[in-house]
Amino acid sequence: MTQAKDNNCCVSICHCFFDYSTPKTLVIRSKKVGAINRITQALVIAYIIGYVCVLKKGYQDTDNILSSVTTKVKGIALTNTSDLGLRIWDVADYIIPPQEESSFFVLTNLIVTQNQRQGHCAEIPSVSSICTSDKDCKVGIRGPRSNGVQTGKCVNFNRTVKTCEVFAWCPLERDGEPPNPPMLADAENFTVLVKNNIRFPKFKFNKRNILPHINSSYLENCVFNRSTDPECPIFRLKDIVEEADEDFQTMAVHGGVMGVQIRWECDLDLPDTWCVPRYNFRRLDNKDPTNTVSPGYNFRFAKYYKDSDNKETRTLIKGYGIRFDIMVFGQAGKFNIVPLLLNVGAGLGLLGLVAVVCDWIVLTCMTKRRLYNEQKYTYVDDYGVLPEE
Amino acid sequence: MTQAKDNNCCVSICHCFFDYSTPKTLVIRSKKVGAINRITQALVIAYIIGYVCVLKKGYQDTDNILSSVTTKVKGIALTNTSDLGLRIWDVADYIIPPQEESSFFVLTNLIVTQNQRQGHCAEIPSVSSICTSDKDCKVGIRGPRSNGVQTGKCVNFNRTVKTCEVFAWCPLERDGEPPNPPMLADAENFTVLVKNNIRFPKFKFNKRNILPHINSSYLENCVFNRSTDPECPIFRLKDIVEEADEDFQTMAVHGGVMGVQIRWECDLDLPDTWCVPRYNFRRLDNKDPTNTVSPGYNFRFAKYYKDSDNKETRTLIKGYGIRFDIMVFGQAGKFNIVPLLLNVGAGLGLLGLVAVVCDWIVLTCMTKRRLYNEQKYTYVDDYGVLPEE
Amino acid sequence: MTQAKDNNCCVSICHCFFDYSTPKTLVIRSKKVGAINRITQALVIAYIIGYVCVLKKGYQDTDNILSSVTTKVKGIALTNTSDLGLRIWDVADYIIPPQEESSFFVLTNLIVTQNQRQGHCAEIPSVSSICTSDKDCKVGIRGPRSNGVQTGKCVNFNRTVKTCEVFAWCPLERDGEPPNPPMLADAENFTVLVKNNIRFPKFKFNKRNILPHINSSYLENCVFNRSTDPECPIFRLKDIVEEADEDFQTMAVHGGVMGVQIRWECDLDLPDTWCVPRYNFRRLDNKDPTNTVSPGYNFRFAKYYKDSDNKETRTLIKGYGIRFDIMVFGQAGKFNIVPLLLNVGAGLGLLGLVAVVCDWIVLTCMTKRRLYNEQKYTYVDDYGVLPEE
């Protein structure tokens, strides 16, 4: 008996397992309804295939880029000023610091203050530093804009003006407007070789911006030009600035920041050779004439010397120049079943939405809606408990 | 005949195409079941609309930020030590290197070793360098912690201790604890102007942290303060450190790394003026008192001189200080139909899940389940082959 | 009357609201169909659970890493050349610039040109600089590869060759092949301590690469070794290079760029201690023997001096070396209901696809398809207007 029961139960489960449920369907043969239905379906399917899969490449897994950049600037500049005399500038003089990870700074203009020593001198005249007697100056005061610590004395700055004496690197820098035209105007002809190696770690794909078909002799002489040499990784600084619709000589006066964008958009389902870098140049700092607090880009640095008495002296340089930030970005895509199914699954959900909309149209708007309703719905009433019924 | 057939076939396909299939539905009029159904549906719809669309902005396409940062530090510090005498430090002295891409280092403390020359001197006493005779020292040995190459001699380090002689930059640095209080304690009042230009390339949207409504005269005098001046891009170093719940003077002794986080969370469906940077400050290195192998942040650098004999000498500086890393991050979102449909589609899939759950409740738990089952299911038996049937 | 009507209407809406619709279903009890159905369903569910949820962790919200890196190199090198004599190099000599944000450069080889002064000297012989008389040289010409500005004179370079005189930093650098073996061959034994603090801002999770269970005494002496000391954050430079299948001494001659990759893949649903960094080393620049325009990595920098006449002289160094870029990347995942529901929803959409496929099989391929069709479909014809009907 028990075995028979067990057996029965087993059969039931078995039945259950092999039951295939399919919804009973009412087929309405109507041109109007059919057309509405098919058109909406077509739209959704077109959207899924066209937009998600083809345009947005929803069937691809994506990976972000890892990049390494090295740069090498070449060129010399000649300056002739009363302070420095005739002077030649080479790469060791105008690239500061000599190496950086993914940017480089080219000095284009400078204010030099030579032979500074720690000592006492008259502060540069300003509202807070001009004085008439020692009473106006307080020992130890250091304003946010002052160049040193006040000694409490009021001394002659020149024949007409007296200012508070400060302990500072003397003589003080005459921080006025930078020379215009810029001192290293020759910098516009400097060239920079940008070497960029990229990697998409998820796909184990490496490439560099010196493409395989470029040979050494071409590289020795080429200069990037969007129309004639779009693959040459050697850029003339002036070209970079002009591609961003800026004037090099104007920018060189106060300095600035240029973005050299290298974009790698790689569809790894296509041949490797189609994965090439595209260069774009943009000015990154703001040259908006309003709100120009410390416009451009400059910084101060010093070269330190010792004189014959073993006292430290320095040459202070307020260097204006252009910082070039190499920004590498991009994505690689490769076919992968997961994002495809995610997109298709979501799309099928939308097809369900189509059915809901069509049902509503059929059962409320069509003339034969009463017939359709009768055929579609079977009612089982269970409202016996409702008081109003 | 053939034409008639073709015609027939054509009509069939036509019929097929315009057939609209809608599932036949059993409507159960029961308060219990209805309530369960509607509540679950409401929950799912509320989730889709509320959480995915409103909170997570599932209807937006997002883009990551591209950023460019420049910084400018201002301030002077005065030190007075027996070694260096009275000395003033300005920006060219304490910012090393003078420019970096998105960080800057402020020297706050230092151990100076002046007038180093290549030569022979006694090694700093340690377990491995103390010796009693030349036999204890081997020519050419260079330990991982030694300052030079042993010459094989054992010489007096001072009156009481003998150590192996090394060929090194002499005199050797006395690498002890850094001065406390820190030498450049004044650094807490230095200010830094951070200029940050951002871009969301997908949306061609640019902005900078100096907001359009900020005028120059305000910028000349303002200092960031979370409550009174939250939009001023000029920060006092002490404020940065204190916002991160650290004490500047303590941190200045051994140095450290501070993160200046600029967060841009921009909803580009809203007006541009709502897209503003938010500043946050965090200490990035670990100040955990355990595991303090080389705590803080320091590095060695040297200034090179030539003396009157054209021999190279240098001043070695072990510089402790605070590196400020400017970290810009954030996202922009803008309405886009693709992520919206992806989320809605997935949500509709979940509505299907609701139906499954409700069906199960109705057909197994309700008292009238037998009736419902009869009405819902039509069975077609095809188990003729099953032995037990 | 009106009230009764209102009441009625209210009841109707109430009914409507509590109506529960469930599709009428045809259950086909057939082993074949059932098996096909269940197998496809099982596949889809296995895919959703296995691949999306378990492998791809589709139930997790992810966050990208924020990282801060500091490095400290230790070691000394001894060189002995005719130019420089016996010379010791320590960290202040060979790390240039002394600190960077997330990379460091170790000098391994160099070409030194001492005592350069601004002046006139004969250009290095080349196709464009060799001359026979002053006519071959033009005042003011500066070629892209020249070291200075031509003065218009043709002078003896050595006994046999005459070249154009240039105004430049003289004497000019003899830019040939770098010394082989490299001058700082000892650099292979330098060690670097890499301190890396990471943060996943979305999950407020911090960690650093010096793991909590590592004590100070271990850190003082350990050196990274993939098999014996995989958690030690101190790396010998030679080991880094060799892990990337490169030879240190070969690489040191021309320099190069090494990537030190620190990968944090953290499943924050698991204990924190499972979130550990994994180190990987890769050469980032290309050592491809073809296309070797300026192979390796080098840059020029100078040390500036003033001689007794207060004239500036400099020592120009063309430094070859290895730049180590510390690249920190990784992701953290933590359970979150949104991506889970997104994936499940999309998966359920796929289950709908299964039903479509099975229906098609049942209604077209099975022998009893006529019976099934009859049971499944009810037709309502509305083609009265179609001409052929």
TrEMBL record, chains A, B, C:
Alphabetical list of PROSITE patterns matching this protein: P2X_RECEPTOR
Disulfide bonds: C121-C170, C131-C154, C137-C164, C222-C232, C266-C275
Residues modified by glycosylation: N189
Catalyses which reaction(s): K(+)(in) = K(+)(out); Na(+)(in) = Na(+)(out); Ca(2+)(in) = Ca(2+)(out)
Signal peptide: none
Membrane topology value: Multi-pass membrane protein
GO cellular component term, pick one: plasma membrane
Keywords carried by this UniProt record: ATP-binding, Cell membrane, Disulfide bond, Glycoprotein, Ion channel, Ion transport, Ligand-gated ion channel, Lysosome, Membrane, Nucleotide-binding, Receptor, Transmembrane, Transmembrane helix, Transport
A single MF term (Gene Ontology): purinergic nucleotide receptor activity
UniProt xrefs under Gene3D superfamilies: atp-gated p2x4 ion channel, atp-gated p2x4 ion channel domain
Record field: transmembrane: 340-363
Binding site for ATP: K72, V73, K74, T191, N298, F299, R300, K318
Compartment(s): Cell membrane; Lysosome membrane; Membrane
Source species, domain of life: Eukaryota
Family: Belongs to the P2X receptor family.
Subunit record text: Functional P2XRs are organized as homomeric and heteromeric trimers.
Function: ATP-gated nonselective transmembrane cation channel permeable to potassium, sodium and calcium. CTP, but not GTP or UTP, functions as a weak affinity agonist for P2RX4. Activated by extracellularly released ATP, it plays multiple role in immunity and central nervous system physiology. Could also function as an ATP-gated cation channel of lysosomal membranes. Receptor for ATP that acts as a ligand-gated ion channel.
Protein known as: P2X purinoceptor
UniProt organism field: Coilia grayii (Gray's grenadier anchovy)
